Amino acid sequence: MKVLRMGLIGGLIGLAVALAPQLAGAADEDGRGEPINLGYIENVAVGNKALAMKGKLDTGADTSSVHAYNVKVYKRGENDNWVKFRLIGKDGRAIRYDQNVIRFVRIKTKTGGTIRRPVIHLPLCVGGRWGRAELNLADRGDFEYDILIGREFLANRVLVDSGRTFVAEEECERADEN
């Protein structure tokens, strides 16, 4: 039995070694490259104008969430949901958005109920790594951080060291001034 187990383990290790180049190549194909090591609290740039926010990198959350002000969902056409909202950076700079809603998500509340939130796509950057993220628009006024970055964005980009904060060496430059 022990020999069989050792043979199986050796075979799995061999398979992992053989597949490693293809798996590494797959991560590079989407432009992400090798993951970087960051702390669980980092500076985050949101949107094309790189609005600066202090964010929490949360491997326990599926998607990301941002504190949005004046959220107004409306229809464009018969079945097309859009949302107007404002984001305010840590320096007080505010940016207004008018975005297509990609879906709605139901979030469980502490009191046992649920709340429906719109989800949008916006560019995000942390540690010099830009990517498009799904963000649900939330009232995070009771939380310490205005933005929470979830696994959907972190996967294959960032390894989170839960014992460290603000370890990013690269800045996030503005992608577009318009």
Automatic annotation (TrEMBL):
<feature type="signal peptide">
    <location>
        <begin position="1"/>
        <end position="26"/>
    </location>
</feature>
<feature type="domain" description="Retropepsin-like aspartic endopeptidase">
    <location>
        <begin position="38"/>
        <end position="170"/>
    </location>
</feature>
<protein>
    <recommendedName>
        <fullName>Retropepsin-like aspartic endopeptidase domain-containing protein</fullName>
    </recommendedName>
</protein>
<dbReference type="Pfam" id="PF05618">
    <property type="entry name" value="Zn_protease"/>
</dbReference>
<dbReference type="InterPro" id="IPR008503">
    <property type="entry name" value="Asp_endopeptidase"/>
</dbReference>
<dbReference type="InterPro" id="IPR021109">
    <property type="entry name" value="Peptidase_aspartic_dom_sf"/>
</dbReference>
<keyword id="KW-0732">Signal</keyword>
